[in-house]
Write a structure and sequence with these properties.
Blueprint (H helix, E strand, L loop, with lengths): L9 E12 L5 E11 L3 E6 L8 E6 L2 E13 L3 E8 L16 E2 L2 H15 L1
Antiparallel strand pairs: 1-2, 1-4, 1-7, 2-3, 3-6, 4-5, 5-6
Length: 122
């Protein structure tokens, strides 16, 4: 997806459990890969397409994050890249959890996250 995320963003790869609603109000459960995360947005790779504008949540490392499906883009071989705008009360930060295969695209905040990870390993 070609879009700038707010602030620093992080590439990652972490399987997450996803819950979302369709237009009829039915709840769907799926497994997705968390591809990118920032304090305000996340990108999930899913097999199905959650509807834009509707609530979505995902659980990573026993932490639930909530938001709204902002957009989705189909990759013919991989699936749907779903952009989630996180709710104001559900912001992600490195002290919450650090996804697997974590690559920062912003050095200034990365040092804070690295310190958090290092302190937990000791």
């Amino acid at each position: 997806m070609s879009r700038p995320m707010n602030g620093c963003r992080y590439l990652c790869s972490e399987l997450v459990s996803v819950l979302y609603e369709d237009h009829a109000g039915h709840t769907h459960q799926a497994v997705a890969n968390l591809e990118e995360i920032s304090s305000t947005e996340a990108i999930l790779l899913t097999e199905g397409q959650p509807p834009s504008g509707l609530p979505i949540s995902f659980c990573a490392k026993q932490h639930d994050l909530y938001g709204v499906v902002e957009s989705s883009e189909l990759h013919p071989e991989l699936g749907w890249f779903v952009k989630v705008k996180l709710a104001g009360s559900s912001r992600w930060h490195g002290r919450m959890f650090v996804p697997e295969h974590f690559i920062a695209l912003c050095q200034s905040t990365f040092s804070d996250v690295t310190e958090d990870v290092t302190s937990r390993v000791r």
